Amino acid sequence: MIYLLLSVISSTLIFVVFKLYDRFKINTLHAIVINYFIACICGVIGYNGSIEVAKIPQYDWFYYTLGLGALFIIVFNLMAITTQRSGLSVVSVATKMSVVIPVVFGLVYYHESLGFIKASGIILALVAVYLASIKTKDGLTVRKRNIIFPLLVFLGSGIIDTSIKYLEDSFVAANDVPLFSATIFSAAATIGVMVLVVQKIRGAFQFRWKNILGGVVLGIPNYFSIYFLVLALRSGVLESSGIFTVNNVAIVMLSTLTGIVLFRERLLRKNWIGIVLAVISIFLVALGKW
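Above: the chain sequence. Below: its structure as tokens.
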């Protein structure tokens, strides 16, 4: 359970960093690219063994990590577009509701258990995520012409989580988790650099040291959010459907409470209801294992 807790804390720190980006006017795309390099370095440092770059493509999981790296960048840009067109609440709901995809995958592909208590916990978790994420009294409003973007964020986020579960279970050896994570971030960083090069050619790139710093601060918790999630999936404390459910709803709950303490955010009644339901859902999912 400690790995799951550490993954939740790492993901919550990502939320805090993103909030600070807005305060210090940091270019999110530029910082994100640097963040991937830092996350890659963390994986290299954490790998217990010698790394021969020429042999990395020989790993069974290598080409999958290239696809995941590309998906990281694509989903990030889709999230940015969704935020601009529909707001942060829509992005938050689309991202966290995507837990449905890895949960269903675990139930169908791995034949994981689904008793009444666990099913109730999963459903309650989805309700909790929605209520805790909506920061307006009127709920979500998305224009028909923009609906495709949150849908793509939903699918992309769900595919990323599902792929990580499948790869770590099928291809990644226990000692290779840091290297596996580092390779994903390396692929994302490489693609991100290509995007920045295009910006430079078009004259839209401006170098700022604060963007570098922002990337460094983000990269460390970003790496550990993935690293500890993989370890949690391997711990056996819960089935993958339970791990992803508890992970996502706990992140929403802790991020919301962090927003109150650090940024003095004011919550609506439904946000508080969402937090209470989040706690209950975690207990139900955990209890559903036994």
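The chain has a mean pLDDT of 90.
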